[in-house]
Amino acid sequence: MTQALQTIALGLLIGGVYALMAAGLTLVFGIMNIVNVAQGAFLVLIAMLTWKAWQLTGLDPILLALATTPLMFGLGWLLYRLVVVRVRGTTPAMSMLLTFGIALTIEGLLNLTAGNYFRSATPSYFAQSFHIGSIVLPKAQVYGCLAALLVLGLLYLVLNRTWTGRAIRATAQNPSGAALVGISASSVAALSFAIGTATAGTGGSILSVLYPFFPASHYEWIARLLGIIVLGGMGSLRGAWVGAIILGLAETITATYGSPRWATLVFYAVILLVLLVRPHGLFGTRLREDVAT
Amino acid sequence: MRDKPARVRLTALVAAVAMLVAGCTGSNQGGGSGPIVIGTSLPLTGQFSQPGGEAKRGYEIWRDKVNGTGGLLGRQIDLRVTDDASNQDTIIADYTKLITQDRVDLLLGSFSSLLNYAASAVAERNQMLYVEPAGGAPNMFTRGFKMLFFTQPATAPHHADGITAWVKSLPEAQRPKTAAFITQDDPFTRPAIDSLQKQLEEAGLRTTYTTIYPANTTNFQPIAGAIAAGAPDLVAQGAQFEDGIGAVRALQQVGFSPKVLFQTNAPGNGNQYSDGVGKAATEGVFYSTSWSENAKTPLNDEFAQEYRKRFNAPPTEDAADAFAAGQVLQEAVTKVGRIDQVALADWLRGNEVQTILGRLRWAANGEPQGNFMLAQWQAGKVEVVAPKEAATTEKVVFPKPAWP
Questions:
Q1: Going from the N-terminus, what domains does chain B have, and what CATH number goes with each?
Q2: Which end of chain A is more exposed for a tag (fewer CB within 10 A), N or C?
Q3: Helices of type H across B271-395
Q4: What are the TM regions of this chain, as residue ranges (chain A) (predicted)?
């Protein structure tokens, strides 16, 4: 019983962080039909910056998200205005090529500047745990999950309770309708892309504490994130949530009761099964409409 | 108008001839007085980019050392490094191109068993000597290859012999009684840990837990939990790098500290390892190593100093292994006196070579016949604890202190 609870608790904690990382990806796809394969590179970029800042100042890496998130928002906005806007309205393949190029550029720059080394931030609590009864909750994972939930909550509020959020959702549902009532498609697109990349700011800062990373780590992360949003339904925030939790649970449950060797396989087997029954993923049927639900 | 296609055809023909001629003049079958071209393809990007980058450093230090002291057979070395992106298909294409188009005089190997497995087959097919600084998986040497030589002291199944010998050297009452074995699903670490498990079971230890996890595993808490449940005295992990750090962290998080912790490769990464797990948590961790900065082998000091000067960091085992591969190639060419691939291979099969790792010699299949050293983290530094003649300290930290 304890082992089962322990396994589920760990799975949920990990799932929360995955959810945040996948949220930006699914949001950008839902609104703009762009598959941003650079999201993993953004995560690693921010993890590296967080690590450096933590080394220099000793500030808490997860709290550094307060700085890295706005930074990524700015970078996302700039990238959209300068580069991504040029592939808007072309096929998704073009946007994948472009963002893959961005990912390779980031990897290369990190290689040159930060060097090809594994890093990981190790604040005082990184190897400590909370003990609830006989259940162990690693502190880093708990803080990381809380930060992720906070940002996801804010994202939900922005999309559902503000005019900006409404404009974003309106554009997603019906671009020409939105344009007719005076919503500027290009500024909404820039804003959405910026919000999407901003989630990589928080995600990257959390990653720096949870896992060792190096410039080429982004392949592993983007594979995971794409898996999550395909399972959940591309474009659906709720889907990203559910997909992330399923991945977190699949990883820990398979590793505990089966063998870690099967963890990845089980997750992809779930994707395969879901796609057989629901080709759009779990929540992807109303692809464009349910972005923010 | 009509002569245009003809002219295009003519241009193409001339270009083709030019290329052919260039190809011919580029070919260099061991004679001549120009530089000796040595080709290699390393994983400079991707999964193995970390050891790949270190290998490049080791090769370059070796090249400059040779070129600074009169070159090889009186000729300068021109080292050509290509990037295989940690990909088996790419490395096959790279070595094929190096051999058939660039017509390099000599080859040096790549990093990781995975990549060397494919690359050494290309070299063998083309009858090119293949001296590799990594690639100790046992299945490298069961293919009957004649041109392959591995320049570390031993292959994977003997990687952990040192820890077994140390366990056996303990008085009966102090010996660990139980052990857990976990390893990455990797052609090098798996046979190393499998063989260690067999050896320790024969020595009377009871196995409480074993598992194999894939290379991309990031969450080690479930594994750490399962290890802790059996509370073994000894934990051995076939760890490349990230996974070694992940496991130590997770063991700390679940609050289980074994009396003996052995990891195959991860602790050999110096500062990167101690930064990753936290300096205090390194105390007492054992690992096997092919090289020690403090070893008194010829040129070792020079290599270490040059590395520190160039890269402003402590030298690494991977770079040292690459340097040693260069030394092996150099010794063979010097002794044979000409570049004749088969003669070079025959010479290596029959002779010992002194390197910064120590003296190396090989079985007929290119498998090295030496032993790794047993190293241990002590007070934030790496010390060699066995064998005696290479040891840098007589002290062994046992049992490992509890996590900080």
A1: 36-146+296-360 (3.40.50.2300), 158-292+373-390 (3.40.50.2300)
A2: N
A3: 271-277, 300-311, 317-336, 341-350
A4: 29-51, 63-83, 95-119, 140-159, 190-213, 225-250, 262-278
